[in-house]
């Protein structure tokens, strides 16, 4: 019974760590919601030679990751980092210590990986680089 309660507590804690809302509530400047780094969203909201710096700040917020060159060109970077790596490690360790029937067949079915993915899904690293001309308009952008 104690192990089941421990498992429930670990699952609750890990799900809070890996949820997008937890990431956004404590986000640092330059980190954005994953849906704002969608190619369709970017294409409809960032128009080269029309979108300004203030438009980008309204869409994505401020970023500390800025590069300013001597000719007045600025590059701003926004990203969604992989926030789940720690919670995935903890979930894997917890799974190793839980007595689960049939666990000896896990290598054949990859059950541990499925369990970890259910608790702490992997998040893809994405980065948006926006280049502004010297007048403050978007010159181009790159989604990586």
From TrEMBL:
Q: What is this protein's record name?
A: Lipoprotein SmpA/OmlA domain-containing protein
Q: Does the keyword Signal apply?
A: yes
Segment forming the signal sequence: 1-22
The source's domain of life comes to: Bacteria
Name the UniProt key words of this record, in alphabetical order: Signal
């Amino acid at each position: 019974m104690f192990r089941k309660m421990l498992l429930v507590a670990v699952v609750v804690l890990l799900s809070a760590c890996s949820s997008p809302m937890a990431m956004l509530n404590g986000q640092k400047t330059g980190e954005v919601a994953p849906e704002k780094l969608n190619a369709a969203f970017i294409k409809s909201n960032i128009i080269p030679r029309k979108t300004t710096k203030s438009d980008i700040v309204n869409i994505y917020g401020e970023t500390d990751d800025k590069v300013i060159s001597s000719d007045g060109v600025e590059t701003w970077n926004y990203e969604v980092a992989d926030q789940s790596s720690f919670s995935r490690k903890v979930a894997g360790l917890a799974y190793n210590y839980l007595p689960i029937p049939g666990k000896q067949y896990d290598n054949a079915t990859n059950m541990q990986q499925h369990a970890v993915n259910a608790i702490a899904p992997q998040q893809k690293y994405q980065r948006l680089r926006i280049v502004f001309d010297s007048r403050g308009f978007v010159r181009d952008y790159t989604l990586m």
